[in-house]
Design a protein that fits this description.
The protein is α+β, with helices and mostly antiparallel strands and 352 residues long. It is built from nine helices and 21 strands. The strands form four sheets. Strands 7-8-9-3-10-11 form a six-stranded mixed β-sheet, with helices on both faces. Strands 2-1-4-5-6 form a five-stranded antiparallel β-sheet, covered by helices on one side.
Length: 352
């Protein structure tokens, strides 16, 4: 099967994208990053909507863009399947004809295109929808139709641009699970752009973090989630990320404070990641087994789903997740003096 090998360089007046990416056959790679990081530009170069300034893009052994040799294969001639954020289904065509459009536009006959569409209608369980038009579909159904249309083209690579962003929260959960199964049945490389960390963690085998045009971290989804390398990744995943210097099990945190960790071997510049739910909030100095205890002042309170996130300024400053009942019981509000505690075993420390 075909893999994706890309070194993407695009230079603009105030922005340069320079990223190297390899996606193996059958692998799903999620690209995460803040707005303006270059995610959409990366997708546009792979599918042929924007030429490279330098570098190369190869689909298997086929070079589709390489400025140094003058090779630039037009978008229509690249075997690339795309699922857009808003799906972009043709409103005047039925589900069957929407799916058949892909193979038809690549040169197959109407009969061949409808046969290919029928295969994907069956595989994605769309049989009872084949005669409907997009306006008659739910968000989840439209997402499956868009995926079927992309796959019916027999693509060498599949590109997904925020494929679940248009769905409501309830539908998103079910569609995410279905999409994961469909993606892992696809034999080619899949590149997924998303802002949602849960989409990335559930759907992808590997994460690539793009910030200001450069890749700042990549690796297995769980490794990136456990050991974020930048403040953006930590915020995205809802983690506290602290920088400091380690020596003999103690970390002197930049900005003040000392934390005790279980790894006594790590030394020098380090990062410490800790989940907000792993930090306990107290109104009096606690006694117990936690080695890390420090005072602070409540600086902010925010409701997040079924929990409350409390930002506490101190040495160090951290986010703490507690229940709404705990906030009421402790009578916590902005300006309240509190104590924090965290077990050393809950702190993930690694070279920074």
């Amino acid at each position: 099967m075909t893999g994706l090998d890309a070194h993407v360089v695009v230079c603009r007046a105030a922005f340069t994208l320079d990223a190297t990416l390899d996606v193996a056959p059958g692998e799903v790679v999620a690209v995460l990053g803040p707005n303006g990081a270059g995610k959409s530009t990366l997708l546009r170069t792979v599918c042929g909507l924007e030429p490279l300034g330098d570098g190369h893009i190869r689909l298997g052994e086929t070079v589709v863009d390489e400025p140094s040799t003058g090779i630039l294969v037009p978008a229509a001639e690249r075997r690339v399947g795309i699922v857009f954020q808003d799906y972009r289904l043709f409103p005047h065509l039925t589900v069957l004809d929407n799916i058949a459009f892909g193979p038809r536009s690549s040169g197959r006959t109407a009969k061949q295109s409808r046969a290919a569409a029928g295969t994907w209608i069956e595989r994605l369980r769309l049989g009872d929808l084949s005669d409907r038009k997009p306006g008659e579909l739910s968000g989840g159904q439209a997402q499956r139709v868009a995926l079927a249309r992309a796959l019916a083209c027999d693509p060498a690579v599949l590109l997904l641009d925020e494929p679940l962003a248009a769905l409501d929260a309830g539908t998103r959960l079910d569609v995410r699970s279905d999409l994961r199964d469909h993606l892992h049945e696809f034999g080619g490389p899949t590149l997924l752009v998303t802002h949602d960390p849960l989409d990335a963690l559930v759907l992808a085998d590997r994460l690539v973090v793009l910030e200001a045009g450069s890749i700042t971290q990549q690796g297995a989804a769980l490794d990136v989630a456990r050991r974020p390398a930048s403040d953006y990744v930590a915020r995205l995943l809802g983690l506290n990320l602290l920088r400091g210097s380690a020596h003999d099990g103690d970390v002197s945190v930049d900005g003040g404070g000392t934390l005790h960790v279980t790894d006594r071997a790590v030394r020098g510049a380090v990062l410490v990641a800790v989940r907000p739910s792993a930090i306990s909030l107290h109104t009096q100095q606690p006694e117990g087994s936690a080695r890390n205890v420090w005072p602070g002042t409540v600086d902010g309170i925010e409701s997040i789903g079924d929990r409350v996130r409390v930002t506490v300024s101190g040495s160090p400053t951290v986010m703490v997740d507690v229940t709404a009942d705990a906030v009421a019981d402790l009578r916590v509000r902005r300006g309240t003096e509190v104590w924090l505690s965290a077990k050393a075993t809950e702190l993930e420390v690694y070279p920074g």
